Protein 1
Amino acid sequence: MSEALRARLEKSRRQVLKPKPTMTLVEWADEYRYLSSESSALPGRWRTDRVEPARGVMLAATDPAVNQITVMSCSQLLKSEFLNNVVAYHMVNDPCPILMMQPTVAMAEAYSKDRIDPMIRDTPSVAAVVSSKKGRDSKNTVARKSFFGGQISLVGSNAPAELASRPIRIVLCDEVDRYPASAGEEGDPISLVAERSATFAPFNKLICTSTPTIEGRSRIEQLYKAGDQRVYVVPCPSCGVEEELKFDHVKWTDGDPETAAYHCPGCGHVWSEPERVRAISRGYYRATAPFKGHASFKVTKLASPWEPLSVLVRKFLEAQGKTELLKTFVNTQLAETWVEKGEAPDSQRLYERRETYSQNALHPEIVFLTAGVDVQKDRLEYEVVGWGRDKQSWSIDFQVIMGDTASPEPWKELDKVLNRTWTSPTGRELQLRMMLVDSGYNTQQDRKSTRLNSSH
């Protein structure tokens, strides 16, 4: 046995036998993680206190009570480095099979080269456990990184064969609002990869991150609402009341973003920029729904310690009158879904136009009445409708007449409807102008009834 092989085996033995320290992700990252110059304006040792909104999210990643994490976040605040911290932690501290899914294969390859590779290179404890790229038999490729006790595979949500090919314990889904509705003909890509982690329960985790998109269509919004819906709250520097930072409370004068400041909705105190940054450093996540194993987080650019409010307001002012820019601002800066105007389904628009009135009561604008009848084997169902100008209509009554429709009895009851009168608020009496009978069932009997009713 060569000395080199013996040394590698001894290193592997020590790694396997080394007891795992009981550290949270925050503790581990603060001690061992290093940021790369390619991905950070502050390269060097990671410090959670520099981006306090990341603390609660990171603690959930190593909380045994949490099996699913959702992060609906603004851009350029915490998503990518949070995912990198999770990957690094498990490479070193808790090795296992990991899968990271990006919207496309090309984006997965780019993330591997631009984010994962520099992290491995610049974090010594990670570099020590990851297989070398050198050699023909290297297990370290763009799409797969092997380390002692596990590996991470990077795949695209548009590649169904890769999503269901191997068991996974930690599933990381990034920018989920850009995933296709179905991975080929295989179904929802998140469900596909989540299913691969079932064999590791209860030690598996599904983590999804994204900026949101369109209300009602946003995957990350749906996932966020399925969790305990945590929001980042901070204390007012003046009154101490803790609340979620909201853009509605940011004010400025004369269209000048340099005058932008946060106004406490409780006491009215106008925060200085240093006060806002200090408030962020004292913030925490507050759940607004019951916790059932799914921790979901929402955080906006208002909670960023690096970007002053003047920059945020300038982006908002530049987006005015430009729908696409405003949509991007709402999604990527405020971490909120965009409400499409005029895109509500017909049922929703109809519901919003509803009016309240009593059964059998006539609206003053009704001019005449009609009725429609549906024929079934054991019943007749009819609706009386009142009609006004411009094709307006009001449902006046709906009744079911039970009985064998091959016999005359239910039809006789229906004839009574023809003889009925309804009184309008002005005292005018109205009868049915027309009754239409669906002849789709028992056609001959329906025709007999029609002849009978036409004599009325």
Protein 2
Amino acid sequence: MRLVSKILAILVMGLISGLAASPLAASFVDTGNSNYVFFGVFIVTAGIIFLAPTGRRAWGRGSLICGVLFVAMPLFVTALGAQVGSAIVADASTTGEEAGAAIGATLGAGLMVGASMIIGFIVGGVFLILGLVLVLGGRREVVIIDSAQTPSIKR
């Protein structure tokens, strides 16, 4: 059952981590390396989850990875916005409207980063808290020793 839980955690959390890293992958589309980003994120996530000792810790590790990626999503969107903005300004240079294109690209990139900050911090915070509870939580055993029933040692 532990292996089934780990495999399910690898599939679900790998898919979610790939979704969180999709703006980073989209910024590599021109170079043709976008599939490598998804593959790399999935492999790293799968490796960390598979090495977990229990299914609960596997889900916790996956949640922590997804949380970190969602919190970092504004950085990924910033890179994507800069690339798209420079492409827009370069295309507008043929028509002589660089100023308007630069203003529009800056506003659009700012709105994208702002939206990703709201979504990334909220969803990332939920995943981080869930991951910490799953990784650090667990069974606690408390041993109570009743001093009235234990024999006392006299010297």
Protein 3
Amino acid sequence: MRWGTSVRGSNGWRGMNEDQADAASLDQNVFLIGRPPLEEFLGFVATLSPEGEAVDLGGLTAQWRLANDHVKKLELEEAGHADNPPVDELPSSLNQLARGIFADPVFQRSFQLVPTSVGLVELDRLVVFQKHINLNFIEDLKRALGAEPSDAELLSFCLPTRPSLPPVRRLRVAQNAWTFVSASTDLRFLEPVLFEPTQITGYRPSGRVAAVVGLVVGYGSNYLNALKVGGRLILNNGSHRAYALRDIGIRKAPCVIQDVTRREELPVVASSEVVAHPERYTEAPRPPMLKDYFDERL
């Protein structure tokens, strides 16, 4: 289902009436409906749409029920469709670029926990857990990629080793508090690190330093990657890029594949949603798939 949400201003979400809500001031979204939880869909629309709490929740619930009927039909007609999707090798012309990906220290650090490979995956058969896609961001991605990317451009788009990162604004808002601001939603807290005093340069301490605790802020590895779990490929990162590729007609894309061989590995490689509800994605006869974003009934 397509939905418009109000844009975030400097003081939070900026509500708008119908006259104000023109295309320039709205983020257009696709939101998958028809599967639990219904309350997440209603909360998304009520919180972020221009209508706010005045939105017709009864009408939305009726639409959700229709979509749920369609989901039940798909569970019968397409049972097993997510199982054992083919994974093709990259074209030989990309071997040198692929070696550069495996040599990237960020790649090595990000994908060290389970067996990992790179291959061409069929986008439509990827299992997805992300409920909504921001179409404004999709248009930005499509402009950056171009309508007919080469194999090398496609690989760089999906598995960037030298991504162009937006600047980060750093604001000290209290004696022991900082705010970091970026145009990218990928800005995040990465990890805590314990440094030895000899590792820190340019700092003049006010006392005798024993150790330094660092809170690392930055961008994730940002590789298009999927988890191979029980013969299925669950899209773990890169939902917007996968959608953008599918939207311009590309059906297969380079992807990092992490081979999860047992359930105990999920908590260290999967998203919190997959960890909390693995049965929705690994056991359901017909789980949500990338092609569902393009099904108007969903």
